[in-house]
Design a protein that fits this description.
Blueprint: E1 3-11, H1 22-25, H2 32-43, E2 50-58, E3 64-68, H3 73-81, E4 95-97, H4 99-108, H5 118-132, E5 134-136, H6 141-150
Parallel strand pairs: 4-5
Antiparallel strand pairs: 1-2, 2-3
Helix pairs in contact: 4-5, 5-6
Length: 156
């Protein structure tokens, strides 16, 4: 028999032996508590955010591997600015993010965001900010993106 993959969305640091993992792992004869502990350890930095998690179990050896996906960029932005939802109507501003916060998000999404350098990655974060009604440094994110592209604002 081959590897069995179980996937689910869990809140960071709050996996339990219940759904989605417990019922699926039980029949495989693995130590569910060890798996849940590892998931919670790997996701504790994303408390309050739903994270995609995959558990891959070799059904013969009972060895397992836990893979944590990247949380949505929008969820990370909302956490940084301390609000629950983005703008509901066009033109609404729900919060402000600093360039350092945008950079922090870009670093945390490094494996799932495209771009050859930090400026390109931060620009993607700022693009998401624009669609959510979040300003950057008190300005429209498009203006900040233009400053980064022109070299007026430097990111390292």
């Amino acid at each position: 028999m081959a590897d069995v993959t179980i996937a689910g969305l869990i809140e960071g640091g709050k996996a339990t032996g219940g759904a989605p993992f417990g019922p699926a792992l039980g029949p495989l004869g693995v130590n569910i508590n060890s798996i849940i502990t590892e998931i919670n350890e790997k996701t504790k930095a994303f408390e309050g955010i739903k994270i995609p998690v995959k558990v891959i179990v070799n059904s013969e050896t009972k060895q397992f591997k836990v893979e944590i996906g990247a949380p949505p960029t929008s969820a990370l932005i909302l956490r940084e600015i301390g609000v629950q939802l983005g703008a509901k109507i066009k033109g609404e501003i729900v919060g402000n993010i600093t360039l350092e916060q945008a950079k922090k998000i870009a670093v945390s999404k490094d494996t799932s965001i495209y771009g050859k350098d930090m400026a390109t990655k931060v620009n993607q974060i700022l693009g998401t900010c624009k669609s959510m009604g979040v300003t950057c440094e008190g300005e429209d994110p498009r203006a900040v993106i233009a400053k980064i592209k022109s070299g007026e604002v430097k990111l390292k």
